[in-house]
Amino acid sequence: MLQSQLFPKTRKEPPKEAESINHKLLVRAGFIDQLMAGSWTLLPLGWRVVNKINQVIREEMNAIGGQEVLMPLLHPKNIWNETGRWDKAKEVMYQFKDSRGREYALSFTHEEIVMDLLRKNIKSYTDLPVAVYHFSTKFRNEARARSGILRGREFLMKDLYSAHTTEKDFWKYYGEVRDAYSKIFTRLGFDFRITEAGGGVFTDNNTHEFQVLAEGGEDTIFCCKKCDWGVNQEIFDEKKAEKCPECGGEIIKAKAIEVGNIFPFGTWYSERMHVYYSDKDGGKKPVFFGSYGIGCTRVMGAWVEVSHDERGIVWNKAMSPFDAHLIELPGAKDAKSVYETLKKEGIEVLWDDRDVPAGEKFADADLIGIAVRLVVSEKTQDKVEWKGRSEEKSQLIELTEAVKKLT
């Protein structure tokens, strides 16, 4: 990709209304654009990052037997009435009537839709278990959309839903999803904790959240210094706050950003929506059901909150919009040849071919934050100057070595 053709250009100043770091940097660097409060356009750089995130998620969902689908965003009132959530979730749902007076909602989640799919297609115990997931837009009527892309009224999310014949099989899969989520956030490079939490408008059961430790986070969690125990502030019992209930270790309080959650529903949804299967003896049984979510766009915002410096964003290899940022300076021997060589090797490159001062090129490179910067100039001759975005020093290396390191 030629930087001279990249849309849009970077900005020198953040939006006046921006308070959070991700809002300031993602807008300045040209990753996102705000249409209105809580509604964002993913620009070319932002879409590349989210696709990188989604691919990591997709690989781990497929590894535990998830099958990818795509479900509607427009839902009829009657399906939400089956569980009573048309009224129970009214505060967060966008509800409206069409020109014929029929009532609909925009999806804020898809439990009822999956239940409808299951009852149409599940008959026997031989049809279970089933796990389906999709990447889809969600709409939630946030009272105060804030924190940049972290809390929106419209956002991209991955939902996985699973149905099982027994509670034992459900909890086995719940553990597999928990492990898969841990792999996802480890691969993406986060320092995170798994905490117990309430179920909100989703369930009366306690759930589990995946929380990224971040000074700018709006959630407060309590976790143990020694073991994996953790809860969010909502269910933290201050009366028992002295020691960890699991190992007796010290409990610490921390700010965090929720990037994922998993919900155990048992048979609550299947009983209300009549989703049954026939067991080996011909008996009629309700399916055990769970739901598991990751906020894809939220993950991008969370990374920027925890990985930046005074110059801009610091992407890692897993999420970087390009593998390398090629900076061409005056006197460079053949920048185009370097660019073509990298592309031929399957390396995704942003080539700064613009006719602007070197200082502007370096400032934009730091702001955008691509994981690796390669400089070609009169000084480098047949070599390239390699510098990781998170590193202080650069090194002069052969192009073949740079290709090897990037692949």
TrEMBL record:
Residue ranges of coiled coil: none
Domain of life of the native organism: Bacteria
A Gene Ontology BP annotation from the UniProt entry: prolyl-tRNA aminoacylation
Aminoacyl-transfer RNA synthetases class-II family profile domain sequence ranges: 38-321
Keywords: Aminoacyl-tRNA synthetase, ATP-binding, Ligase, Nucleotide-binding, Protein biosynthesis
One of the record's GO cellular component terms: cytosol
Name used for this protein in its record: Proline--tRNA ligase
Native species: Candidatus Woesebacteria bacterium GWA1_41_8
